[in-house]
Write a structure and sequence with these properties.
With 297 residues, this protein is mostly helical. It has 13 helices and three strands. A three-stranded antiparallel β-sheet has the order 1-2-3, with no helix packed on it. It is globular, with a radius of gyration of 21 Å. The relative contact order is 0.12.
C-alpha cells in the first residue's frame, strides 16, 4: 500500500514538474539574442525574400505581396501564412527588429510562443545578421495591407501550442552553416543556399510521422510528405542518374523543365514560379555545384 501511494505521489510530482516546464517562458526555446539593429539593404532583402520563399508562402494568389498566404495543407491540419506587411494591426508593423530576428531565426513570436514548424525557422537559423537586417529593411518598405490573418485549422492535440515546445525538444534540427575549407567557394555558397534560405530539405528530406527531420542531413526525398505528396531524392547520385548536369540543373531551376523534357509539378512548380526563376545565374550554379557535388569529381 505504501509503495502504491509512493508511486502515485511520484507520478503526480513528475506530472506537475513536466507541466511547469511546458509553461516556462523559454524552455526549451533559446533566449533572445543581443543582436543590435543594423542598417539593411532593402534591394538585397527583396532578393532574399524571393530566395527564401517569403513571397511564395506569404502571398495568396491574386493578393497583395506578403499580405498572407494560401493554406499549407498537411496531415496535421491547414497552416495559413500570416500577413507580414508593415501594417501595425494586421501585419508586423508593430514589431521591433529584435522581435523579427527572433521570429525568423528562432521561431518564437513577440509574445514568446513557439511557431509551428510549418514556418521553416530550422533552416533560417543559419541566416547571417546581415541577411536578417536586409530582409527587415525590405519588408518595412513593402506597402502595408490591413488584411487580417486567417487562423490555422489544426485539430487536437496539435492545436495545443505548448506542445510544440515538447516537439522542439526532441525533433528540432536547427541548421548551422560551417564552410568546408577543402571545398570550393561555389560549393560552400551552394551548401549555404540549399540548407539555409532555400530550405530544400524542408521537402526533400524524409520526415518522421510527426514531422521531425532526420538526424543525418541527406536530401534523399520524402515518399510521404505532410501534404500527401512525395518528393524525389536530390542526392548527387540520384540527380546524375536522372540525367542532370550543371547546365541542365540550372536550366531546370530557372524554367521548371527537366532534362527529359518533363516539367516539375506540385509544390516544386510553385518554388520555380515564385523563387528560383528569379535567382542570379551565379547562385543557381552554386546550388547545382553543391547538389551535384562537382568538387568531388
Amino acid at each position: 500500500m505504501r509503495m502504491n501511494r509512493f508511486a502515485i505521489g511520484l507520478t503526480a510530482v513528475l506530472t506537475l514538474a513536466a507541466t511547469g516546464f511546458l509553461v516556462m517562458e523559454n524552455w526549451p526555446l533559446p533566449a533572445p539574442s543581443n543582436l543590435a539593429e543594423i542598417a539593411g539593404d532593402p534591394k538585397r532583402g527583396a532578393y532574399l525574400a524571393r530566395l527564401s520563399g517569403c513571397i511564395t508562402c506569404h502571398t495568396a494568389p491574386g493578393a497583395a505581396p506578403l499580405s498572407g498566404g494560401a493554406a499549407l495543407v498537411s496531415r496535421f491540419g491547414s497552416f495559413n501564412a500570416p500577413n507580414i506587411t508593415p501594417d501595425p494591426e494586421a501585419g508586423i508593423g508593430g514589431w521591433t527588429f529584435a522581435q523579427f530576428e527572433r521570429a525568423v531565426r528562432q521561431g518564437i513570436s513577440p509574445e514568446g510562443d513557439p511557431y509551428y514548424p510549418a514556418f521553416p525557422y530550422e533552416f533560417y537559423a543559419s541566416l547571417t545578421d546581415r541577411d536578417v537586417a536586409d530582409l527587415w529593411s525590405a519588408i518595412r518598405q513593402t506597402p502595408a495591407v490591413p488584411q487580417e490573418a486567417t487562423d490555422h485549422q489544426v485539430g487536437f492535440p496539435f492545436n495545443i501550442r505548448s506542445g510544440i515546445r515538447l516537439w522542439r525538444t526532441f525533433f528540432e534540427r536547427p541548421v548551422e552553416y560551417r564552410p568546408d575549407a577543402s571545398r570550393s567557394d561555389s560549393w560552400n555558397r551552394g551548401r549555404y543556399l540549399v540548407w539555409g534560405p532555400a530550405h530544400c530539405a524542408a521537402c526533400h528530406a524524409p520526415r518522421n510521422i510527426i514531422g521531425g527531420l532526420p538526424q543525418s542531413q541527406e536530401l534523399t526525398g520524402d515518399p510521404a510528405m505532410q501534404d500527401g505528396g512525395s518528393s524525389p531524392s536530390i542526392t548527387p547520385q540520384a540527380l546524375t542518374a536522372r540525367g542532370y548536369t550543371l547546365p541542365s540543373l540550372v536550366q531546370s531551376l530557372r524554367t521548371g523543365v527537366t532534362p527529359d523534357g518533363d516539367v516539375f509539378g506540385g509544390s516544386m512548380a510553385e518554388v520555380v514560379h515564385g523563387s528560383t526563376k528569379f535567382l542570379l545565374t551565379d547562385h543557381l550554379e552554386d546550388m547545382a555545384t553543391y547538389l551535384l557535388d562537382l568538387d568531388a569529381r
